[in-house]
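Incident log, structure service

09:12 report received: a user says their structure output differs between two submissions of the same chain.
09:20 pulled the input from the user's history:
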Amino acid sequence: MSATDMTREHYCRPEIKKTILNLSCEGTFGRWGNGDGVGWYLNDAGKKRALKLCDEYDRITDTYRTLYWSLNHFDSRIFELDYNKVTHEESPIKSREYTRAYTFGVDIDTVDPVNEHGANIQVPVVKEAVEAMARYYVARLKEHSPNSVHVLFSGGGIYVLLHHKVTEPYFKRYESSNDWTDKMEVLTRTINAFFDSISKDFAKEYPEHAKHAKADILNNAKRIFKALFSIHKKHPFACIPLDPDNLVIDFDKARVPLSNETVESGRNWYQTYDDGVEFLKSLQAYEARAAEEVEHRYEHSGFDEDADVSDKPIDPENWPPCVRNILNMSSCGEGRTRALALVASFFGQAGMSEYQAKDVFYKLARRWGATTANIFDSYYQKMHVPTCSNLRADNNIGFPMGVSIRKLGVCKPDIRCMNIVSPRYYADKHANINRLKKLLKREEASV
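09:34 re-ran on a clean worker, output below:
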C-alpha cells in the first residue's frame, strides 16, 4: 500500500521526523532505509544507490506507507556504490563488508495471523502469548545486558532489540581483519543461535503460549524491521516504544494519530546500553560453533562455492516433494520463515527467472499471511538450497535457521530422494551428476 495524506502527515510531524532521523545516523554510520518492503534503491543519474534513511527520509515517506530501517548500521561508503554493478552473489558480501554496528533483534509475532477463529494480535489469548514471549526474551537478555534491551510494538507483534553498542567490542576486535565478512557472519550466526535457544526454552516452559506466539530470527547480512513510529502495512497502528519492565501492548496508544505523550516517549527510547563485555562472554560457546560452521559452511552444505544455478529453468514436474508440498500448503504457522527461505533459494538455483520467482513467492507469502521482510532478496540466487539433512535437523545447522521441515509435514521422500543430498540436486539431474564427478575427483586426489 502506498503513502496517503494521513501517512504523509504522520511522518511529517516534526517530533516524529526528528526522532527517527536521530536514530538513523551516528557519525559516519547510517541505516539503510526501505519503503513497504520493496523500495530498496534510488536511481540517481544512472546509478542504483542504496537509500540512506537520514538522507532520503522525505522521499521514502512521501512514496510509501510503511517505513523500514536496517538493523545494520552501515559505513557511509555503501551508499556510494552503484548496485547496477553489484551481483546477487556479491550483495550480501557487500552488506557484511560495510556493516559497522548491528541492532540485533527478534520479531515476536503470532503463530497464525488469522486462524480458524480469526485470531491475531488483538485476540486476548494471542496478545497474552506474544507479550509473555517478549517478557521471556527481555529477562534472558537482561541477564548480561540489563540496560541494553529495547522493545517496540510493531503494529502486529513485538520487536525485542539489543542496543548496537553491546556488540561493539566484537566489531573493534575484528572489523579491520582481512576476513571481516566471515567474522560478521559468525556474529550473526552466534546471535541467531542464542536467540533460537531462548525460543526453545520458552516453548518448553510455556507450551500454552508457544501455541500462539513465535519468534522470527533472521539477523543476516541485511535485515530490516519497521522503524520507530512506522505505520503498519494493514493496521491503523504505529510502531511505538514499550516498557521492557512492564511489557503490555496498548492499542490505543499505538493508534494513529499518535498522542503527544506517545511521540515524546520516542525521544527517550534506545538511549541506554552496556559495554557488552559480559554479554559477549556469555556467548562464547555459540560463537565457537558459529565459527566452525562458517569455516566449513560449504562442506556442511555439500556445495561448492560456485553459484551453481541451472542453465535453464527446471520443469515443476521435476521439483522435489518438499518444495511441491510447501507450495500447496493453504496455511503455515511456525516454520513459515524457513519454508519461504527454502522456496526462494530453490527457485534461485532451479533457474526460475526473478520475475516468475517473485510472483510465486509473494503469492505464497500472502496466502499464509506471512511477513516476508527481505527473505526473497536474501535467498534468491544468493544462498544455496540447504541439504536435506540440515532441513530436517533440529539443531539449525546451516541456512535457513528455524523449525525443521519435518514438523511441517512436507518432507515425504520418494524413491529418488533416497540417493539425493538436497532439493537442488533432486530437481537437476545434470547438476547432480557433475556434483558426483567432482566428489569422485576429490576422493581420487586424496588417495
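09:41 both user submissions now match this output. Likely a transient worker issue. Closing.
09:42 reviewer note: The first strand starts at residue 25 and ends at 26. The chain has two domains: 5-285, 304-446.
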